[in-house]
């Protein structure tokens, strides 16, 4: 079975590109970020500080996560509630980054992620897929872009959705998220030694997609 690990900072386009890649290649797509966002959402709903390890760890026994494909799209269920849309806010994103620094949360989700990878050809994206979750992945890609490019992409998405955030606010959030992800003690964001670096700052979606397909094809053909 073939496994593709895609890591990189927030706003690099990992999820959008990974979903399209999985569809085009016929692989199973696993959005690990959605899992952390779901845990972050649960913590916020419970009134817990997502950065408080003890408080969040105490909540884990009450969390059940399930992934399912609905009309060709992956949905995530938190205790049987479809929270796929609810987890895509900046507040939940920051909470996800905070709970992702919790070793207990990472251990809680690790086996679920690895078990999914055993079911067939998979494409998984996140922060530590190639370094921790799937260290022996067939293909590893570290997808990145400048903080300004990532912030502009996200800001344009917000504009299209009618959200009021300014570009400066989005850029500040992106930089803060980068600091959190790179500075945390548990599985900090870093490029695996055997990962291919792909900077998409100057690439559009289709160009980024083509570059990723080429990387995967070369690696798989070389097996």
TrEMBL record:
The superkingdom of the source organism is Bacteria
Among Gene3D superfamilies, the record links this protein to: P-loop containing nucleotide triphosphate hydrolases (3.40.50.300)
Instruction: Provide the Cytidylate kinase domain boundaries.
Output: 4-217
Q: What main location does UniProt list?
A: cytoplasm
Protein localization: Cytoplasm
Q: Which UniProt keyword terms apply here?
A: ATP-binding, Cytoplasm, Kinase, Nucleotide-binding, Transferase
Q: Which terms in the Gene Ontology molecular function aspect does this entry carry?
A: ATP binding; dCMP kinase activity
The alphabetized list of GO BP terms reads: nucleobase-containing small molecule interconversion; pyrimidine nucleotide metabolic process
Specify the protein name: Cytidylate kinase
Lineage of the native species?
Bacteria, Bacillati, Bacillota, Clostridia, Eubacteriales
